[in-house]
Write a structure and sequence with these properties.
single chain; Lyase 2-enoyl-coa Hydratase, Chain  A, domain 2; 6-stranded mixed beta sheet; 3-stranded mixed beta sheet; about 15% strand
């Protein structure tokens, strides 16, 4: 699986990866090439030891307009049992991994959302740890419009963010909501007139902190949200902390704080 630059590009600067959806002429709608490229991008970033943050954004007028229905028409005659059910990416299929891969990336992921985030695009944004949206962005769980259910990780990700009645309303109606409503319902983290700039600024702040502590924090939060027992979460807190105390990144963070300077963490 490779990254098609006509669908997705990655640039890395100062330990921050900018992942850009580049199908602007189609409002970054997800066709098979886009799905494979998004997943390939996430899988590539999973292996970069010196990565500290990721920003996902879309070129053109919208973040992502959802599935490119026309491009998937050729699959209509194939058996959905064979197309949908195989677990090809850990516990997910390809389309689910478009969103879930960003949960597997070990560093914080921020989605900069503008224009529209419909269906597949909405679920892609949900896969990020943080979502910054332009106030005029429209978001929707679009699948019911096509006689389908959301099946790209949304039912894993949404219940961690929003009330059940809100999720049901959006799922049953397929009606778009504006970003301020999504903020109120817990699906958007914050609003910005310049979401990409705001997301990059936040990523820069994140990248300035201890990289080992940041990765540990993401692991710990994911465990806490997974339904693990109190005992398991408490043990994980202690284990992660023990593995950080007195190690080079923590000592550098302390020294930088005391000397009122930016920390200089060793490259990995």
């Amino acid at each position: 699986m490779t990254i098609n630059p006509e669908r997705v590009t990655i640039t890395i600067e100062n330990h921050i990866a900018q992942v850009r959806l580049t199908r602007a002429d189609k409002m970054n709608a997800v066709d098979p090439d886009m799905a494979e490229s998004v997943v390939a991008a996430g899988r590539h970033l999973m292996g970069l030891t010196d990565l500290r943050a990721v920003v996902i954004s879309g070129e053109g007028r919208g973040f992502c307009a959802g599935l490119d229905v026309a491009s998937f028409a050729k699959f209509a005659a194939t058996d959905p049992e064979d197309r949908v059910m195989p677990r090809t990416h850990d516990d997910a299929n390809l389309m689910q991994e478009v969103a879930m891969v960003w949960q597997r990336v070990p560093v914080p992921v921020i989605a900069a959302v503008h224009g529209v985030a419909f269906g597949a695009g909405f679920q892609l944004a949900l896969g990020a740890d943080i979502r910054i949206a332009h106030p005029e962005t429209k978001l929707a769980i679009m699948e019911m419009k096509w006689g389908l259910v959301p099946d790209m990780g949304g039912m894993v990700l949404l219940p961690k963010l929003a009330r059940s009645d809100v999720i049901r309303r959006m799922t049953f109606t397929a009606e778009p909501i504006l970003a301020p409503q999504a903020l109120d319902w817990g699906m958007v983290t914050e609003l910005s007139d310049t979401p990409l700039e705001a997301a990059t600024a936040l990523a820069t702040t994140i990248a300035s902190k201890s990289p080992t502590a940041m990765r540990a924090a993401k692991r710990l939060l994911q465990l806490a949200e997974s339904g693990a027992s109190q005992a398991d979460v408490l043990y994980a807190e202690s284990r992660e902390q023990t593995d950080l105390i007195g190690k080079p990144d923590q000592l550098e963070q302390i020294a930088a704080n005391l000397q009122n300077r930016a920390p200089a963490f060793k490259l990995r």
